[in-house]
Amino acid sequence: MAAAPPLPPLPPAENLSLAEGAYRRLRDAIVRGELPAGTKISERGLAPKLGISAQPVREALRRLEADGMVLTQPRSGTMVAEFGPARLAEMGRIRMALEGSAAALAAERADAALLAALEAQLTRMRAATAAEDTQTLAEANEHFHALIHHAAGNAFLLRSLTALRGYDHVNRLRALESTPKELPKALAEHEALARAIRQQNPELAEERMRAHVLRSLRAGGLLQQDKK
Amino acid sequence: MAAAPPLPPLPPAENLSLAEGAYRRLRDAIVRGELPAGTKISERGLAPKLGISAQPVREALRRLEADGMVLTQPRSGTMVAEFGPARLAEMGRIRMALEGSAAALAAERADAALLAALEAQLTRMRAATAAEDTQTLAEANEHFHALIHHAAGNAFLLRSLTALRGYDHVNRLRALESTPKELPKALAEHEALARAIRQQNPELAEERMRAHVLRSLRAGGLLQQDKK
DNA sequence: CATGGACAACTGCTATAGCAGATGGCATGC
DNA sequence: GCATGCCATCTGCTATAGCAGTTGTCCATG
To answer: B161 and B155 in contact (C-beta within 8 Å)?
Structure first.
């Protein structure tokens, strides 16, 4: 068994089945607004546009329905759901809850490898924060959270969090770039969170993660300030 | 438009497509232990046993995979995942988080119909608690939570909570029956929760729901007492 | 002109056939 | 005897065809 690479593989390789590819393409198209809310879509209609059969398209649509991105009534048709600011706020709330659970579970089963990987990302973050390198910071942030998601070791949780990622990957960048003065706060929160995980304190880790995501959402303008 | 029935239809009718039916049957079979962990299952193998084609079976297996109940690696095979007490505890944690989110969202958009429906279930609960009628109590409890899930108005959240229900529908009964002295506590929590929803306080509703689910999990022996 | 009903064109859903990749046993060579 | 490579078999995955509902349009009728 050879030594692990410096950056442990999160999902080491992409399988890219046709259904998976269709799912991602459609998801991105919806998020980017290329398929506006209310657009009628159908398995047969999308199949030739994606260059595949109708069957994988159907599978992709079922997943998108589970994610809440499309609405389909049984024998009639499928349309992309509308998610305005209100819905994005809802998804943000849910993400806060699930990220908190992931942090708690990760704290329970934290091992040396996880702690080292988290520390590596923190090091990147410290440098990027000092340099206000938002690009690198966004990447490190993604890795940091992804590490926790995987460390939680729960398939359902991982799947759910991955689905939620589609909703705010745009707003995440905006949140980081629009308010550079928030960057030190985020860094401090990440460090405090890593500490809670290191001392294997699930409740503390959950609470800190929730606070971190909540502030992040507020910085992105997705949640009101009247929450306490 | 006729007047609504006294118990507003949660899911008014069951569509029961073949894929949906296969999903439920397989899910129940796994939960009941008829398909022990590690059992190898395949689309083609299950199709004749369910009396349907392999295609709906596949769809059901994909959903079960999303729920974390089966593990499938791409070209090799599918097996039912093992969920011992540790995994059930994880799912309990996640359920606590998602139930909290649902309560918060339900509090945000609470209307007269919801409050009336919740009050109706509370009335049932009060009587059932006094009579220690655990059967009726379990039903009212299910309805109460289902009302909140639907009132949250979020497809993704509803789907996730429905998936989680499969994990603890056994332990839920046990929790209620094994500790009758806990019943008044649960009733008081439900009433306090309804109050928070009535005054449209999302944070309070979320916190109370989390506490309620947490105590319920502990009563069922799914979580340790060292949590605070 | 308004209205109802049948028909054509959709839709999601299911069945069947066949694909490529993975698995395990068995024969072959060392 | 042990390792090695081949091949039958089984797997998930995809393509195609056809089913049964739904919907909208157009013509016939009051």
So the answer is: no
Q: What is the pLDDT of residues A175-202, one digit of tens each?
A: 666 567 788 999 999 999 999 999 999 9
Chain A closest-CA separation from residue B130 CA (Å) = 35
Q: Residues B103-128: what's their mean pLDDT?
A: 97
- A90 and B157 within 8 Å at the Cβ level: the answer is yes
Phi, psi angles (nearest 5°) of residue B67:
-80, -10
Residue A3 pLDDT > 50, yes or no?
A: no
Cβ contact B122:B191 at 8 Å: yes
A37 touches strand D (CB under 7 A): no
Closest residue of chain B to A19, computed from CA coordinates: B62
Strand partners, B78: B41, B72
- What distance in Å separates the CA atoms of residue A185 and residue A227, rounded to the nearest whole number? 19
User: CA A101, A104, A108, A114 torsion: positive or negative?
Assistant: positive
What does the pLDDT look like over A116-132, one tens digit per residue?
999 999 999 999 999 98
Between chains, do A74 and B17 touch, taking CB under 8 Å as contact? yes
Distance, CA of B49 to CA of B58 (rounded, Å): 14
Residue ranges of domains in chain B, CATH in brackets: 18-80 (1.10.10.10), 85-219 (1.20.120.530)
Chains A–B, number of C-beta pairs less than 8 Å apart: 86
A153 neighbourhood in chain B, CB within 8 Å? 90
**CA A176 – CA A192 distance, rounded (Å):** 19
Q: Which nucleotides of D are covered by protein (CB under 7 A)?
A: 10-17, 20-23
B172 confidence band (pLDDT: 50, 70, 90): low
Mean pLDDT across chain A:
88
What angle, 0 to 180 degrees and rounded to 10, lies between the N-to-C axes of helices A43-50 and A18-31?
A: 100
- Phi, then psi, of A70 in degrees rounded to 5: -130, 155
Res. A14 pLDDT band, cuts 50 70 90: low
Task: Report H helices in chain A.
Answer: 18-31, 43-50, 54-66, 85-108, 112-131, 134-152, 155-178, 183-198, 202-219
